[in-house]
User: Fold this.
Amino acid sequence: ALFDSAVWEPIFQGYDPDGPDDQELLRWLPEQQRRLEVVSEGRRQVHNIWLMAQQGLDHFSLWLERCRQRGVEGWLTVRMNDCHWVDKPEAHWHSAFWKQHPEYRIVTYRDPLGWHEYSLDFTHPEVREHYLRFFRELFERFDMEGIELDWMRFGHCLPYGWGRRSGGVITDFVRQVRELSKICTSRTGRPVRLGVRVPPEIESCLSLGYDVLEWMDQGLVEQITIGNFLSDHWLDFPIQTWKAAIGDRPVTLGVCLYLGITDPNTGDWMLDTPDVYRGSAGAALVKGADRIYLFNTCYYEHDEGSPQDEKLREILTTCGSLDTIAGRGRRHILSFRQTAAPGEADLRKIPVPLRRQSLNLWSRQDQIVLLQFRLGPAPRSPERAFLWLGFDTEALTAEAEQSGEVLHSAEVWVNGQACRPVSGLQPPQPATPVAERFLAWEIAPEALAAGENLVEYNAPEMAGNIVWAEIEIRPT
Assistant:
């Protein structure tokens, strides 16, 4: 717990503020992060939370009160199965409950393959009670407008294959949290709204045991936020499907955006820019999302007035509505669905081979690469729009074996309208380092529409891959 909880160990349990940097609580950290003067998730974080507790500063209560003063809904969120640093059992992140009960984890029959496989298994009554005690404390202690159950940290709460045959144990748990919320309501006179953060596809939710349809039918939740695990710039969130499932229920649909984007080629994480945020937020809002949910975006902020601080301000002031997005630079980048139930495809759109055989009976033009983009507001004159494609080394080698600049001289259409190749532009960043060359085509603004857009790239069949694809809209 990130406060002096009475039922869970606080993060500073066992911390000696006057102790050495290699005290037991900190020994697992890299040596630099053990030093108090280093701003990091290491000793400085532990020390500051300990210090507030010693001084009687209940920071969550203070934040919630300040929200009420400013007319902002103050919510708390609980990570339902946080698995940070589970490969280091001595880390101060872990509770005694997790350490003492390896038999309660979702994978016990073999060595775990990733952090999420160390998650606690909610089919065990002891696990559910462990969390319910904590929720009871939150409702008894804090005056909140809402509380979120964040099932996306780390996304797995049931053994593999048990999602649809678990007897609704997670639904029953959500129902119990809803009942406990009345403790707070009875103190404050205000109902507590209940929210959840879940995977982007309804079928994935059901396969993981998150029966969002039943939660809505029973009136257990007022807000559903969909998103990927780490980098959420996925233009194809099935928002219309969610809105149809919600129907006329009083449920708000949020779309989560992270502060980074994952390179679909390498898996490396890259820090976003405000124009990437605007592209993804616009794509979600055009399709009917009710709100944009920012996850970890606060880590943009550094010193006041710094470039990073200005980027944070720009994100907060321009990404919340189509009106504030329109007329500003934005990037719509193809990525992949990062969160799926075990066994489901990741729906990876990039990389795309330049030599491929289509299995789609409706489109057997094997030489034409089809790329579908979902945009936010359509560009308006005098805005300019560009298609950026990045090609790998293999593609450049194949091009060198032919005569001419075949990659850039390819025919390109957007929604059936021809595009003009352009040179001399610097590609926007961040972008994959796997691309040996970025090429651009200008798109007539009137060719683009809000929402779905189809790009056709017609080049001679050749080896290599398109490893980056985006539509960039630049204000002039």
About this structure: The chain is about 25% helix and 20% strand.
